[in-house]
Design brief:
Radius of gyration of chain A: 19 Å
Largest sheet of chain A: 9 strands, mixed
Helix content of chain A: 10-25%
Number of strands of chain A: 16
Number of helices of chain A: 7
Shape of chain A: globular
Distance between the termini of chain A: 27 Å
Largest interface: A-B, 56 and 56 residues
Oligomer: homodimer
Chain lengths: 282, 282
């Protein structure tokens, strides 16, 4: 560890601790972003910031200075570093009760962690996934944004322990498939790329938005729509997306299996050739 | 402030700060209890502990030593003190991702705050409440327990700023009324006490359980059932319950108003004569 570069900043101060009265702890009253840092550079920074700012607005937070976040992020990243940057904003210190204090500055937490092993292998070979029992609740006010109320994801992830299963897919109460516990889902059917509509549940991932743009550039028809879990049996290809893993083909889902993913592979190649994806994506 | 008695304990240590990697902050992965402390004694301790332990089991936490919590609570409370004790348990320090570490000891946070002003006056005169726009999501795994994912309550509470409105009532997506942002709801109709069924949304409050027991002792018929918001117009009395406020009559709800609350008053009197309610409840 380079002792001159901290791993954590709280409101700009190098510390591993936060006020025990913080509303992030008490209510999950905040948002986060998880960014791939490759060769010393946070990837898809602008898209992450756009989602973060949309989340701040949705939750009624005051505006946050993006340049301050950028400067703090830079101060945590060593030249050429591979890692994961987590940015967490909360509504600040709690008073008594749920009511908020107008204009109170959010708490800023920035954390650097090592780059996880094995992601390239998964992107090449594909992964096995399962269907989760848990059903996601529906709430349009909280859907799409990456807020700190993540107990559904924690409980869904606790449904399996077998390391062979890489991810679990989640449906809402209407049996519409929404996403994985930490990834968005895409499906290819008859040459069309489909991904679940997220107006009442789920997180609209940054890599999901990248893939939708790449599909457009490749001329592949793509639609965002409600997908019933039944429709998964009609999938010619399935893949997952998230900001660290990029695009990951699904090899097994319950009784189904796939061994080649033509459109998924084209999208992976397209991602690898973008400026943000270069030097990271296999 | 008495300098020998701290206001906050984290894992038994007098400190106002917590590990920035705590899963309570990152995911809201934990539970809390808010207890009335009157004359130096936390009220309804056993009921709070029972709910807390039920929540721990639901979320798959390891067992927590109640005597340790009790000893820590006692070390925060001065003799004869009036105040509010908040006990917050999280799943401990986060690794990477939502997966949990088997047997990891929960983090324990205990906080003492001053007793809020004005509660007695509200219990006497009644309060005005409104209907919230936000609809509570449904999730049986998280319903009933007092977990740390409270963004719905934060967002509902942000719907009004007028201080004359004391509380907002929340419905689920099926237009069933569930609870207030920080209180449970009771309704009296034709001599029967009704309170919403909470199997998919809401928090099963400690004071709610006290009131259901008091009704039984008074011989008043009481039922837990789904209540459509339409049914509120048939209410002969409405009241709120929570662990600090006890039993609070509703004076106004939108166009409706009430000026006497015979059963509510009987329940208030019954609460005041219980051992736990004595010396606190008006």
């Amino acid at each position: 560890m380079n002792s001159t570069v901290p791993n954590a900043l709280v409101d700009g101060v190098a510390t591993g601790r936060i006020d025990v009265q913080d509303r992030g702890l008490h209510y999950g009253d905040g948002l986060f972003e998880t960014l791939a840092v490759r060769d010393g550079r946070p990837r898809f920074w602008s898209r992450h910031m756009a989602r973060l700012m949309a989340g701040l607005e949705r939750l009624g937070f005051p505006v946050v200075d993006e340049r301050q976040l950028e400067a703090e992020a830079e101060s945590l990243i060593r030249p050429g570093q591979q890692g994961v940057l987590k940015i967490l904003l909360t509504r600040g210190r709690a008073g008594r009760g749920y009511g908020t204090i107008k204009g109170q500055a959010p708490s800023r937490v920035l954390l650097m962690a090592p780059w996880p092993e094995g992601l390239e292998a998964k992107a090449r070979a594909g992964v096995a996934v399962r269907m989760c029992q848990l059903r996601l609740g529906q709430n349009p006010i909280l859907a799409g944004i990456k807020h700190l109320n993540r107990l559904e994801q924690v409980m869904a992830r606790s449904e399996w322990e077998t390391p062979e299963i890489d991810e679990g897919l989640l449906c809402d109460g209407g049996e519409r498939v929404i996403e994985g516990t930490r990834a968005n889902l895409f499906m290819v059917r008859n040459g069309t790329l489909l991904t679940p509509e997220l107006s009442a549940s789920g997180v609209a991932g940054v890599m999901r938005s990248v893939v939708l743009d790449l599909a457009r550039e490749l001329g592949a028809p793509a639609r965002v729509k409600a997908i019933h879990r039944r429709e998964l049996s009609e999938a010619d290809e399935l893949f997952l997306t998230n900001s660290l893993q990029g695009i990951v083909p699904i090899r097994h889902l319950q009784q189904q299996q796939w061994t080649d993913w033509p459109l998924t592979r084209r999208l992976q190649e397209a991602l690898a050739t973008t400026e943000e994806g270069t030097a990271w994506y296999p």
